[in-house]
Every structure is written in structure tokens, then in C-alpha cells.
Amino acid sequence: MTGILRAELITTDRFTLEPLGVHHAAEMTKVLAGTAIYKYIGGQAPTAQELANRYAAQSVGSSRDGRQIWLNWIIREQGRSIGFVQATVEADGPTSDVAWVVGEAFQGRGAATEAAHAMVTWLRHQQPRIRITASIHPENTASSSVARHLGLTPTGDLDADGEEFWDDSPPTGA
Predict the structure, then answer these.
(1) Which one of 14, 24, 26, 139 is separated from 81 by 20 to 30 angstroms, measured CA to CA?
(2) Mean local confidence (pLDDT), 49-75
């Protein structure tokens, strides 16, 4: 990969993907409140301080050893934050693990699909041969639908957390 990737402002028909900063913590605490969004991803709603600490680490842009590039965006709809998308790009190979979370109040309207698609399109523009992957709980039908819209397919392999590995590689034998 030539040069280091940095999250840039991305726009869609309905949303703006704004590069993540520590200043987003307070408003995102409200977006990430509730319990339903943690059913499949685990954990619980973070406090503003927990988010500030997390965002401070993530907005550095890469792991200490430089092996991963961290790209994170806040999804905005008409100026208000409604969720986030993120990509962890492996610096030594063109692979990016992507994820998305939309607040409970904003789900069911295609926000995750549109925002994740915009992020993946941006990634592929930056690195045309990038392989896109995601890890999704097998019962999370909403995230599975987003992944399918991104051209990802389930592999049948589960990670230690019980999430299924999805990718955009052609199935074996194809």
C-alpha cells in the first residue's frame, strides 16, 4: 500500500461520513445508548469518558507497530450523528476488515448499508485490489444483509467470539 491512508470526508445521497475525533464522544454516547445494538456485538453502552478514551486511541490512525491502519467515520444525517463505520486495513496486505453500527433510533432505513457501501467504495478507490472482510454473528440478520449488499459472503468459519467470517473472495471451486 503506498502511503498511509487517512479517513477523509465522504458524502452519500443522505449521509456524511465524518472522520472520527475525540470531540465526537459526547454526542455518540447518546447514539450508542440502549441495549439492543449490543445483542450480537456484546458489551454495553459506553460512557462519554470510555468513548473519549477509545476515540483518542482510534484517531491516531494506526497501531503502534504500524501493521494496521485504523479508519473510522461518524455517520451524520442532516448534521446529527446516527452511528459509525470503520475499517481496519492490514498494512502488509490489501485486506480491510469493516464494521458498522447504527443507533437503535436510526435503524431499519438503510443507513448502515449506504454508509458501509460508501466506505467500501472509498477504500476500493484508494486500493483497487483490497479484499474486504467482516465478522458477523450468525443470528444478526440485519448485518448479514448489509454484508451481502457489500458483495460479501459467509465463509462458515467462526472466530473465538462466535462471529462468522465474511469476505468478498469468490467461493472455493468458483
Answers:
(1) 139
(2) 96
